[in-house]
Specification:
It is globular, with a radius of gyration of 22 Å. Helix content is 43%, strand content 16%. Strands 9, 10, 11, 12, 13, 14 and 15 form a 7-stranded mixed beta sheet that branches. It has a 5-stranded parallel beta sheet with strand order 2-3-4-1-5, covered by helices on one side. Helix 13 crosses helix 14. By secondary structure, it is of the alpha/beta class. The protein contains 17 helices and 15 strands.
Length: 416
């Protein structure tokens, strides 16, 4: 069963603009499946999981590329990073031929990989300016329910039109928390894999294949404890010293391990908004797991009902909403770190999410229940910025858009 991904159009547009495209993302979110669906009928694919192909790529990368030619899909490219220099040479040679013959440039290579640590530096050094980079995360709620989507806009008229078209997809809070509990991994969503068995194997594979070579061998059990402790802090400000004390590691190691989680797409760091005012702004980022199913597994919640009613339910709902926003931006070829921030100052005034676009700013609060009017009480702190303040949004589990006041609205979470 193939699930249509909203990033498909972004991938196709990149394929028309660059001779090489690279698909980044955590393990098992559907990178290879999506590429095979889009290009598999016309572009041959080779995976470096195959021992013979991997050995050839490692020992004689030029012969490897000559043997397979182009266009070519190379899966698990991080297993032979020395291929990147040869790909650069091939692209530059072909570019010169296109220039001399006045031919239209074509897509030559599609690269996918799960281990970004081993890829990122090589891509930056060898293929800068030659490749388009696309990020993929696990399934969004719109993808799960086969809904079309556009880049998120806080415009209330557009949201009202969206509500008119999607009102049959309203889900009560219990159903939303079932989505949160299961997460967005395709194999769990489709029922191919049992949730508990899947996530146990996922963590084992992630540590064995992605993490082990980056940490001391004796630290594996500590890292397992670390990732669970970090999961318990989803949607909180990131304080390295506190996490380090809880795990029993030094702050330097904690920073390195958080970097590993972020680089591999397991967590997302939401930065505070600062616009040269900001000695009064708290500078620590907030940390969110990108897949709520993995996060709830690591926190050992046994079912969706207990998750909905536990002390962390608000944190999980916020993680879910931020994750949906991040996935939406990635799917439409945008970098969420350019647009999404949070606000908190030393007076403890906080806004969960700011959507900043040029000279406009939209405040967004995230509440798991239908909330009282005070949910938007801090929106007025943004008046100190010399920017257009858009209508504020309170995203919760309500069934329809409702006005709070002249400039703020409740928005159902299913509209994301």
């Amino acid at each position: 069963m193939y699930i249509k991904r909203h990033v498909e159009q972004t991938i196709l547009e990149a394929a028309q603009s660059f001779p090489c495209i690279v698909i980044y993302g955590p393990r098992q979110v559907g990178k290879s499946t999506t590429i095979n669906f889009l290009f598999g009928d016309s572009v041959p694919m080779v995976t470096l999981d195959d021992t013979d192909d991997r050995n050839l790529a490692l020992n004689n990368p030029r012969l490897f590329l000559e043997r397979y030619g182009w266009p070519l899909i190379i899966d698990e490219i991080q297993k032979a990073p020395n291929l990147l220099d040869e790909i650069k040479i091939k692209i530059d040679e072909q570019r010169l031929k296109w220039l001399k013959s006045n031919e239209q440039r074509q897509l030559m290579y599609i690269l996918t990989g799960s281990n970004r640590f081993e890829l990122q530096e090589g891509i930056s050094d060898s293929l800068a300016g030659r490749c388009g980079v696309i990020e993929m995360l696990s399934l969004s709620q719109a993808e799960k329910y086969s809904l079309s989507t556009q880049l998120f806009s806080p415009d209330i008229n557009r949201l009202t039109d969206l509500e008119r078209n999607l009102k049959e997809y309203y889900r009560p809070r219990s159903a939303i928390f079932q989505d949160i509990f299961n997460g967005g991994m395709p194999d769990v969503f489709t029922g191919i894999s049992k949730r508990e068995i899947y996530f146990k194997a996922y963590v084992d594979t992630y540590i064995e294949k992605d993490v082990k070579k980056l940490i001391a061998a004796a630290s594996e059990m500590q890292f397992r404890n670390f990732i669970s402790i970090v999961a318990l802090r989803t949607s909180q400000e990131l304080h390295y010293d506190e996490i380090a004390r809880s795990v029993g590691i030094d702050v330097r190691t904690c920073k390195k391990w958080i970097s590993i989680l972020e680089t591999s797409g397991v967590v997302y760091l939401l930065q505070p908004y600062m616009a040269n005012i900001s000695n009064r702004i708290i500078k620590a980022p907030k940390l969110y797991f990108t897949d709520t199913g993995l996060c709830s597994y690591l926190c050992k919640w046994p079912n969706a009902e207990m998750l909905e009613n536990c002390a962390m339910s608000g944190a999980f709902f916020e993680t879910y909403v931020v994750g949906e926003m991040v996935k939406n931006f990635y799917a439409h070829g945008q970098t969420p770190k350019d647009f999404l921030f949070y606000y908190r100052d030393i007076d403890q005034k906080e806004i969960d999410l700011l959507l900043v676009d040029g000279q406009s700013i939209c405040p967004i609060e995230i509440k798991k229940g239908i909330t009282p009017k005070k949910a938007s009480k801090n929106f007025n702190v943004l008046g100190k910025y010399n920017m257009e303040i858009k209508n504020g949004l309170v995203i919760d589990c309500c069934d329809k858009i409702r006005p709070i006041n002249a400039s703020s609205y409740y928005i159902p979470v299913y509209l994301l």
